[in-house]
Design brief:
2 copies of one chain form a homodimer. In chain A, 41% of the residues lie in helices and 26% in strands. With 259 residues, chain A is of the alpha/beta class. Chain A folds into 2 domains: 8-178, 3-Layer(aba) Sandwich (Molybdenum Cofactor Biosythetic Enzyme, Chain A); 182-258, Alpha-Beta Plaits, CATH 3.30.70. In chain A, helix 8 (192-205) runs antiparallel to helix 9. The longest helix of chain A is centred in the C-terminal third of the chain and has 25 residues, at 234-258. At the A-B interface, helix 1, helix 2, strand 3, helix 6 and helix 8 of A face helix 1, helix 2, strand 3, helix 6 and helix 8 of B. Strand 3 of chain A pairs antiparallel with strand 3 (46-54) of chain B, so a sheet runs across the interface.
Chain lengths: 259, 259
């Protein structure tokens, strides 16, 4: 991941992801992009705040785009930029921004070069992939000939994971990012219900740190819990960590005293 | 899946899924529920129209609940009904519906029975899991002691996959369902770009059938495409299938003539 030139912001930078495709909603295709993008943005210091998955339907896509682009620093989309009639993302982006869409000279040149190399023919379907909303920049990638696009704060990417990942690498150095979120995971060796009350008190006393509690089942020891602390200030995080560890010692001692 | 008693509707029955949890958005936890629920609802004859993933934040959850419950026949939620401070789904549901929330006698009795069996103690954290918005029915499950809930068209389930799945089995027989969507998949043995124009024409000529095109890479043959037809009318589906197959024969013959 190339983040060398990222302009780093003191503000929090937020993002939403809009996954477009009937095949995800019908369960036919398993989405592989949400977690990849979630981890990628977290590593960059961008907070993914919301994900929406909608079908290949104009009003659903346009409404989601307009709701999300006003609310977050960036909106990433995946899916719907192929050559077939059910690929309508570029048109929906144009509609959401109220701009015309037309064949983009550079996108066309890239496509023609690609076709010359593979021996395939230009036709109406392939020409669809060179249509770009006015004002958008191309997001090039080396995996496929069809570019993604970037217009204002919306970044439009392919749904095929390998192509999407190449596009994300392409835009990453240009994204505004913030101080990275630090994370600590503490294995509680106690059930969630045994530590919940005290954990809530610690969370209230450490407002700069987000504390999450995630139950899991240990095949040897039974029900267990991971406590995850997240924050941007290392000192605050260390204080919260100490508070959690001390609480866990107390609770475990009390439980083993009873057993 | 028990669907014997499902009241079947002639109308289309729609649903949205709201996944709640910071851990999904940070990429720490991979969601395992979206595809399971998508397939489950499709099999029942319920159209999943939208998925949203939001963090453990009251306004995000309440806003999403209120937007989705007005738009779709059902809203399913996963996550945020455990014993810790970051589990706020029940309170958000109460807030979205404008109803009070309090300890539910039956939920309390189930919890006490469970604790008696496991030897764990009742405490403030565990008591949180017995708080149910006024007017909601419990969604029982045999995996965990803490019930889900069903209020108007909103069904609130656990985030842990095994518990969520048990809750879905519990509510399935009571859901209104529609005639099941029929699906056919045709392997094109052609690139998406080679069939896109003709496929779009077939899609326009067969309005009762949704036609999707999904590129994939065959390690032996290279770029390929699956064409997926979906519809509720078997006759219309068969006609569209024939049109696609005839078109594919023509296109493949033309391509091999050139090669």
């Amino acid at each position: 991941m190339a983040i060398a030139n990222s302009p780093q912001s003191k503000e929090i930078v937020t993002a939403a992801l809009l996954v477009i495709g009937d095949e995800i909603l019908s369960g036919r295709t398993k989405d592989k992009n949400v977690r990849y993008i979630a981890e990628y943005l977290t590593t960059l210091g961008i907070d993914l705040m919301e994900v929406r998955i909608v079908g290949d339907e104009e009003s659903a896509i346009v409404d989601a785009l307009n709701a999300l682009r006003k609310r977050y620093s960036y909106v990433f989309t995946t899916g719907g930029i192929g050559p077939t009639h059910d690929d309508i993302t570029a048109d929906c982006v144009a509609k959401a921004f109220g701009v015309p869409i037309d064949v983009h000279p550079r996108a066309l040149a890239i496509m023609q070069e690609r076709l010359a190399a593979t021996g395939a023919e230009m036709n109406e379907a392939r020409l669809r992939m060179t249509r770009i909303p006015k004002g958008a920049d191309l997001v090039l990638n080396k995996v496929s000939g069809a570019p993604g696009m970037w217009i204002e704060n919306v970044i439009v990417m392919a749904g095929v994971p390998s192509i999407m990942q190449a596009m994300l690498d392409e835009v990453a150095p240009k994204l505004k990012t913030a101080v990275r979120m630090l994370t600590e995971t503490i294995r509680a060796d106690a059930r969630e219900g045994d530590i919940g009350t005290e954990l809530g008190e610690i969370a209230s006393a450490h407002p700069g740190v987000a504390i999450g509690s995630y139950p899991f089942f240990d095949p040897q020891l039974g029900p267990n819990t991971n406590v995850v602390l997240r924050g941007r200030d290392a000192e605050k995080l260390a204080l919260a960590r100490r508070a959690v560890e001390e609480m866990l010692q107390r609770v475990r001692a009390a439980l083993s005293g009873k057993a």
